[in-house]
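Researcher: Structure prediction, please.
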Amino acid sequence: MKQLFNVGKLIDGTGASLQEKASVLVEDGRIVRVAAQGQIDAAGATVIDAPNQVLIPGLIDTHFHLFLLLLQPVGGAAEVTHMADEMIATKVFKAANAAKVWLQSGVTTVRDAGAGEFMAVAMKEAIRDGYTPGPRVIASGPLIAQTGGFRPGSGSHGVEVTGVDEARREARLHLKAGVDVVKIYGASTIGGGGGRLISEPGWTQFTVEEMRAIVEEAHKPGRLTSCHTGSAQSIKNAILAGVDFIDHATFMDQECIDMLLETNTPIVPTQAIAWSLEKFGEKMGFGPHIARKSAEVSAVSMECLAKAYKAGVKIAAGTDADNPHASLAKECELLVEIGMSNMEALLAATKTAAEILHRSADLGTIEAGKVADLVLLDKNPLDDIRNLTSVSRVFQSGKEIQLPLYDLSGFFEKVH
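Model: Predicted structure follows.
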């Protein structure tokens, strides 16, 4: 099948300047040619004319949780529900709805950053095989933590191990189950848990040797690793262990930034989740202490992130979303607030994200040979990054997605 996109404006995701009146030829789900309008032979092609719209690459959420973003059924209000002690089948149906919502918002690829029972791998295969629409999934398995590492209520998303041998064995089990990115839990969360072992958020978990064993096993068959961090020391430990990229990177001192630069280790800061918990946490059923702590963390992490950006640390966009307020558009908006240009923030959610996930041969830009993941916007994000919410049409591998299922206008607005 051939398609010819004639668009008013094109942002190809390479960092090149916006192109006026461009055409993109797609055949069998891949981009064949990009040129000025009138220069491509459209014989036999279905023509998509969008003279007043902006074409961008499909967005990539480098840190998402399909099995945390749980919404009401189709036809109901798009409000957050809580996981509780639900049956696995119920969780899968809700995750399928979450996948549709993110796809509707222009996100055509996600890296699922961890779910119990290897459910993200199952969802990857279900979406790939056409059983349900959703973003292309690059899957992590259950989060691998040290014994006593999970706070109450979150243990179902991970496994706990002690020592190098157990860590190595668990990594091998994850690879056997088909994960793409092995995720290490290198520090406690904002709740400060695990079990009755409560301390300040971000206390360091795992030794470098334990983490290095996981990394070694993942790299043997060419898989990636990431590390959940919440303190400067946990970031340093992850870098010393050789992880491929850092999740959150909430607190960074100068030594952290220097190590990130020296090793060319990227970060996925996930600022949107703290912002959303600060603004909407109590409404979603979290205790007021979470909102207070999120506000504290957000202020410090934005300052640290600004320093890392100015120093040249590689940054990709990810939401860590457990609610639709923490959209990828909001994450890009927050990246602009730390100093990025609108173009740089867009690249963080396209080209850079694809590079970090080792998928740049297929994804992240609108170039010949790439998969035709394309999003039409009604407004130009280079004028205002918040225009990423003006999604009009979404194409994944050249196929138009017949959405929406929800009215999301109330979720993706900026809250002042």
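Model: The chain has two domains: 2-57+366-400, 59-356.
Researcher: Thanks, that helps.
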